Every structure is written in C-alpha cells, then in structure tokens.
Request: fold
Amino acid sequence: MTLSTLLSNRARKTPEKICIRFERRRLTYSEIDRLVTAVAGGLRGLGLNTKDRVAILMENCPEYIISYFAILRAGGISVPINTFLIAEEVSYILKDSGCKFLIYDDRFFSHIETIKTHIPEIKPLMFDEIPKIPLSGPLVKGEAGLDEDEVAVFLYTSGTTGFPKGVMLTHKNLLSNASSCMEVMDLSERDRVLLFLPLFHSFTFTVCVIVPIYAGCRIVLLRAVKPFSRIIKSILKDRITLFVAVPTIYNILAKKKMPFFLRYMFKYFLNIRVCVSGAAALPPRDTFCL
Reply:
C-alpha cells in the first residue's frame, strides 16, 4: 500500500466524513481524494514523470496536504521545504534534490526570482495555477505500479553541522510509523486532531495527517502557532481529542495564567484524551504541571 492508496481507501470507506476543517472550510474525505486526483492529473499534464521530485513551499493550508498526496498519486516524490529558510537556502535544497517543480503560495512570491536565478530550469507554480485534470486510466496504472518500497519523500535536515542533507523515506517507512502510532494512541473515526505545527516537519505530517487519515479522524487545521489564543479556543470549540505539540508549546501551556472561567472550562469541558510531544524530550516538570 502507498500513501495515495491509504487516502483512496479511506475516502471509499467514509466519503462524507469531514477530513479537514480549516477556518470556515470543511472538506470531506471524498472531496480531498477527488482534488488529489485532479491535481495529480494536472501535474502529469505539465510534464511530471514517475520519480520526479516536486517541492512544496507553503504555509499550513488544505492545499498543502492536497499537493503532497497529489505528487505521490502522480508517481512523484514530495520534497517539503522549511518555510523559515531564506531564498538562497531554499535554492540549495531544490538544486540538491533535483526538483522539477516547486509549488508555493503567495507568501513566498519574493523568493521566486532568486530561485530562478539559481535554478533556471525549475518550474514554480502556485496551487491555483495547476490544471485540475482527473487522472486517466494509464496514469492511474502508472501510480499504482509504485509499491510501498518506493521513495515517497525527501526530508531535509536542518543543516546545523553543514549543508542540509536529504533523507529518503519510503511509503512503507511512513505507513509503518503511522501504524505504530495507531497501536499506541488507539484512535478512531470519532477523534479530532489539532494541527498547528508546520506541515513541512516529518513529525507533524506523520502524526497530524497520515495517522488521522489512517484512523478516519477529523483534522482541525490552523495556519500557524500564533496567535496562541487561537489554539486554546480551538481546543474547546472543536472538542479536540488528540493534542500534538512540541516541548516549547507544553512549557507555555504549563506556565500560562488563565482566568478562572477558562480554567473552569478546561477542567469540566476538555475532551483531550491523548497528548503527544515530539521533536525533543519533554521535561518532567512540564508533564507534572499539565
């Protein structure tokens, strides 16, 4: 099984269930699956071939997730780009990975001129510029010919001791990780996952996207961590059951002074049953405070 077939299987099983809630938008599993197929067809129409690399440089939004799965469905390899990098650093990763396309959003429009200077052959595209063409039979077979041992994603290290290095993860790597998470967290279709960490991070995408799709959960997607008050509001309003963060966030929560009514709401109306921390060790004092 590949990540693309994971999504397709889930869309067939629970087509009308909400997959992503983002601001005022609600997208069902069947809608996400159809968009992924249409964008995959558009990428193939633009010249994407099997095992070509496609980078994603976007803030958190449904189009990020759709692009990621569309690249895989078209037979390509996804290359998530750290959104905190400057244009020259982005250019290094694009060149090193041999990306053919770059899907970006308007926040990074200023990067494009620099990127094109360094890599004239790359094709930058905004999501809305990708034609929406449903995949035809032969193209579907082309994607289906990929197996779980094929590379799905290039993840680049932070480059703290040198230039960033690409780590190749297969579909099997990612699905095996998600399966292990499922066993530990015991998620079901009734769960709701809050996603506010950057989607380019492997921890975020695995625990907040792949695992929820595996389980058929709802993903409540926020554009960013800030403002932090939006996270607090979403926990209560969206009845979040799975909270995923990094130690810094838990430290803020542990120290945050809340008004009495909010502490009351958290005590009696909190639906969270699982908290997950990643990227670094969680200090025992923060665990105790929470």
User: Anything to note?
Assistant: The first strand starts at residue 18 and ends at 22. The mean pLDDT is 89. The chain has two domains: 26-170, 176-289.
